Amino acid sequence: MESLTILVVDDDPVIRRLLQQRLKNEHYSVMVANDGYQAERLLKKQHFDVVLTDLVMPGDIGGIEVLEITKELSPDTEVVLITAHSSVDTAVAAMKKGAADYLEKPINFDELFLRMDKIANLKSILKSAKDIGQAMSITEAEAASTIQNLEMTVAKLQTRLDEVETALRDRTKAEDERIANAIDILTGE
């Protein structure tokens, strides 16, 4: 399974560095942004499989806004919100806007890695389904082409058979001549 590309967005440099290091230790490809504005610039430049963002950050672009920007730019990118200010209402609002998951600070890294594995597995399944869909499309196109070729061949053979029948029924010619004409039609001469 390919390693996920993850964008970590958090205004706290300690948490940002900790997340970056722990995720890198688990062989994820990680970039960091220190606020929503930097996250938006990175999201416009590059695709990420997962955005892991703090919910509450200074400025006009907090975690919910990072979620909205991410989903607008790349609907298949999964967003996981992290907050110290956990509430059911905020979690429900985030899920309605497309968040894949929600974690509370302090971060339980075992839980985080399980969620990343879940996302990686889901992305792998979706990629496999897409690959199967593409293979089916190719197979269907090839089957349609084969059927079309067979129908054309059948039509040509039916035309020849009709010509042979006409040649054999032509009573204006001698029997040997009719048979010779029918053979010529069958052999394509």
Molecular structure report:
With 189 residues, this protein is α/β, with parallel strands linked by helices. It folds into two domains: 5-107, Response regulator (Rossmann fold); 137-187. It contains six helices and five strands, in the order βαβαβαβαβαα. The protein has helices at residues 13-25, 36-45, 63-73, 88-96, 109-169, 175-187, and strands at residues 5-9, 29-33, 50-54, 78-83, 101-104. Strands 2-1-3-4-5 form a five-stranded parallel β-sheet, sandwiched between helices. α2 runs parallel beside α3 and α5 (109-169) packs antiparallel against α6 (175-187). The chain is rod-shaped. The chain starts with a strand and ends with a helix. The relative contact order is 0.10. The model has no long low-confidence stretch (mean pLDDT 90).
Question: Helix and strand layout, with pairings?
Answer:
Elements (H helix, E strand, L loop, with lengths): L4 E5 L3 H13 L3 E5 L2 H10 L4 E5 L8 H11 L4 E6 L4 H9 L4 E4 L4 H61 L5 H13 L2
Parallel strand pairs: 1-2, 1-3, 3-4, 4-5
Radius of gyration: 33 Å
Return the CATH topology of the largest domain: Rossmann fold
Number of helices: 6
**What is the number of independent domains?**
2
Proportion of helical residues: 55-70%
Strand percentage: 5-15%
Mean pLDDT: 90
Low-confidence spans: none
Q: Assign the structural class, choosing from mainly alpha, mainly beta, alpha/beta, alpha+beta, or little secondary structure.
A: alpha/beta
Q: Looking at the structure, what is the overall shape? A: rod-shaped
Distance between the termini: 61 Å
Strand order of the largest sheet: 2-1-3-4-5
SSE topology string: EHEHEHEHEHH
Please outline the major beta sheet.
5 strands, parallel
CATH class of the largest domain: Alpha Beta
